[in-house]
Design brief:
alpha+beta, Aminopeptidase, 5 helices
């Protein structure tokens, strides 16, 4: 399988919206309310991603592209937690179409985002993950991320979820 990780352009936004919805519906089915997941709109998510791409809403955004098209994305940048150090970066989101899980694409996106944040001079990284998302946790832990046992309730695109924080020191 050929796969490329690159910066997105506006043409990727609709596919990113579809990926976002499909990934959430598969990964969070028993974690978030079914009604919420069933009502997610790929068009709404695509419009959101188009605004981020066109307006530079986040400092870092990559897409994974295969022969099937845009199948995943990663969003990342400076840590946006209250009180975070200027030297702390964050992986905001990694989403992958469920038809492409288990093919190394999520790992490639995570490594690309981590490498870019290291290149930008961040000394450590964080990410927040829903504790029931065992697939994502397995990936993060296999890449040396460690839970620091900090949890929070966070509103994420309209629904409150419990999240646990993971850290990765760089360098």
């Amino acid at each position: 399988m050929q796969m490329q990780v690159r910066h997105p352009d506006s043409d990727d936004a609709a596919a990113m919206g579809r990926v976002h919805v499909r990934a959430w519906q598969a990964a969070y089915r028993s974690i978030m309310p079914d009604q919420y997941l069933d009502n997610l709109s790929a068009d709404d998510r695509g419009s959101m991603w188009r605004r981020h791409i066109d307006g530079g809403g986040w400092s870092g955004l990559y897409v994974a592209v295969t022969e099937a098209g845009t199948v995943g994305f990663a969003a990342f940048g400076r840590c946006n937690d209250d009180g975070a150090s200027a030297k702390e970066g964050q992986i905001y989101a990694i989403n992958l179409d469920p038809d492409h899980w288990g093919k190394g694409i999520g790992r490639a996106l995570l490594r690309a985002a981590t490498s870019e944040l290291a290149r930008q001079g961040f000394e450590s990284l964080i990410l927040w993950v829903v504790p029931g998302n065992s697939r994502a946790i397995g990936l993060y832990e296999s890449e040396r991320w460690k839970s620091d046992d900090v949890n929070r309730d966070e509103e994420v695109l309209g629904v409150v979820v419990r999240e646990g924080r993971y850290r990765l020191p760089l360098g």
